[in-house]
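WARN no homologs supplied; continuing
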Amino acid sequence: MSSLLPKTGEVRRLRINAGVEKIIAATLREMRLRPEQPDLAPIVVEIRARGESEGLEPPAYVTVAKGIPQVFTPEGIARRRLSGGKHLRRLKPRPGYSRATHALDVVQVDHTPADIHFIEVIDDHGVFVGRPYLTIAADVATSATIDFYLTLAHL
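OK structure emitted
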């Protein structure tokens, strides 16, 4: 439940050594940005080796993975990987895209016919009953399904 509360703006105390952070950033800059995205595991092994050679505690895999967005922006990654601007368009906001900062700020509703036909068998003959319609309400911030309604009546 606490994840739904507004952010307080408090900055968490860093639990990683500043020297390890520098090693992570430097190694990611050297090894991560290639035309084909390299696996992270060999990069983590290199970061741990460099840290141990300097007498620092080696970081966890997750710590290195979480450090990638702090070192690179998505636009910087797309530019460096020689995408020719094709992927940069994908990263920019598009008109009509809904954003919400808190749960239940924006709820989207979709009403669509389902891809199934109901047939009722009467006296060994099939009688077409209809297609069901599905209505879904989804929260934009959490991507949670708030409610759904399935009916044979077209609303």
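Residues 44 and 61 are 6 Å apart (CA to CA).
OK
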